[in-house]
Specification:
Blueprint lengths: L1 H10 L9 H20 L3 H29 L13 H14 L3 E6 L4 E4 L1 H7 L3 H4 L20 H7 L2 E9 L5 E12 L5 E10 L1 H13 L11 H17 L5 E8 L1 H8 L1 H18 L5 E6 L2 E6 L5 H15 L3 E3 L2 E3 L2 E8 L6 H17 L5 E4 L2 H9 L1
Parallel strand pairs: 11-12
Antiparallel strand pairs: 1-2, 1-5, 3-4, 4-5, 6-8, 6-11, 7-8, 9-10
Helix pairs in contact: 2-3, 10-11, 11-12
Length: about 400
């Protein structure tokens, strides 16, 4: 009875409630009490009186309800709809589309544009006449094929939606990076009737990522490629040397006595020397070669297409001469000499064996007295040189 009472007072819509909820609640509570007396008493007179009172209270509730319904008019055939009328919904949808900050493009089943929002026109610099009715692909959008958007076809067939990165060509020919979401709408027969593209311009974010990625491959002190970049460029140089046989060499350069510079003049002075060493190394090689700083006072040089080993020796000796020149430092000069070990790339080498051979040759130069350059030649090269 209590749940019924609650639903009558709280759950019933206002237009179907009695004039006063409490006016109906009090007689019903009284009816509950009378019903209890009626069921618990064994006196016939008490039972008869309780039954009469219950009947009178029930008649009162019925009259109150009838008066209220008579005043409020006939009952509606159905409950009033809670949603907005279609015209208001359409107007609201149009306002949302116009105010949306992301670019939105709607195309038909053949991917011809049927609707765009102002954000798309502002992003691309296109006008409505240049867009409406035209193919999305001809307007610089990535076509909905796996050859352009990986996995788009399978995603649209399975779940009706695909998200990923894409590019958009603007009216001036510029390409911008976008985060794209494509949604496919289907009819009752399962055929695609519309494609909805939502774009978000992420050009600035991608540019920042590229800058950070480039910084992660360069030494912060000298600006030279670091160990990570050295590994990548060495692999590329080796691949080119395998495809088109040519002389490729790797030089390892280590500064003799650099620790003494740090101890006597401080780390700031040592940093100045390292920067100058990087500049001199870069000036000794060609634009096609690559100078890297591995760590501390250790540098590497990748020589591509150096030709005969004599050319590698010439470059190595030039580096030795330039790096051995005095470094001006706070009104005085310091001298650090390099120990240089070089080796030639041979078929069958991998990056590890090539670098290990160059590193061992560099330590051989140190053991031989420092301040010198040694080139490690494969046995075939040595025989050819001895023959000549």
């Amino acid at each position: 009875m209590s749940s019924f009472l609650t639903s009558m007072i709280v759950g019933t819509p206002n237009q179907f409630r009695h004039p006063s909820a409490w006016a109906l609640a009090l007689p019903m509570l009284a009816s509950l009490g009378v019903g209890y007396e009626l069921s618990s008493s064994s006196n016939p007179v008490t039972q008869a009186g309780a039954l009469l009172l219950l009947s009178l209270l029930g008649l009162r509730c019925w009259r109150m309800q009838r008066q209220h319904w008579t005043k409020s008019g006939p009952l509606p055939a159905t409950l009033p709809a809670m949603a907005e009328p279609p015209s208001k919904v359409n107007a609201l949808s149009s306002q949302v589309l116009q105010a949306c900050g992301d670019a939105v493009v709607v195309s038909d089943g053949l991917d011809r544009i049927v609707m765009v929002n102002p954000a798309f026109l502002a992003m691309t610099g296109l006008s409505p006449s240049e867009v409406m009715g035209h193919s999305a692909e001809l307007l610089g959008m990535a076509p909905l094929r796996n050859s352009h958007l990986n996995g788009v076809r399978a995603s649209l067939e399975a779940g009706g939606r695909w998200s990923g990165e894409s590019t958009q060509t603007c009216a001036d020919g510029q390409q911008i990076d976008t985060c794209l979401t494509v949604t496919a709408l289907r009819n009752e027969a399962g055929q695609i009737t519309q494609h909805i593209r939502t774009f978000n311009d992420i050009t600035a974010l991608k540019q920042q990522q590229r800058v950070l990625a480039e910084q992660a491959r360069h030494d912060s002190l000298t600006g030279l490629p670091n160990r990570r970049a050295f590994g990548e460029r060495l692999q590329q140089a080796m691949s080119r040397a395998r495809r088109q046989p040519q002389t490729m060499a790797v030089l390892y350069v280590d500064l003799d006595g650099f620790k003494l510079v740090n101890d006597r003049h401080g780390h700031a002075a040592g940093d100045q020397v390292l920067v100058e060493v990087g500049r001199r190394l870069d000036a000794c090689v060609r634009l096609t070669d690559c100078v890297c700083r591995l760590s501390g006072d250790e540098f590497t040089v990748i020589l591509e297409g150096a030709g005969h080993p004599d050319e590698v020796r010439r470059i190595g000796n030039r580096i030795l001469e330039r790096l051995s020149l005095p470094h001006p430092l706070d009104g005085q000069t310091v001298v650090v000499t390099p120990s240089i070990g070089g080796t030639l790339f041979i078929v069958g080498d991998n990056a590890s064996t090539l670098c290990q051979r160059a590193d061992e040759t560099m330590y051989e130069a140190k053991r031989a007295g420092k301040g010198r350059f040694i080139l490690n030649l494969p046995q075939t090269e040595m025989k050819q040189e001895q023959g000549t």
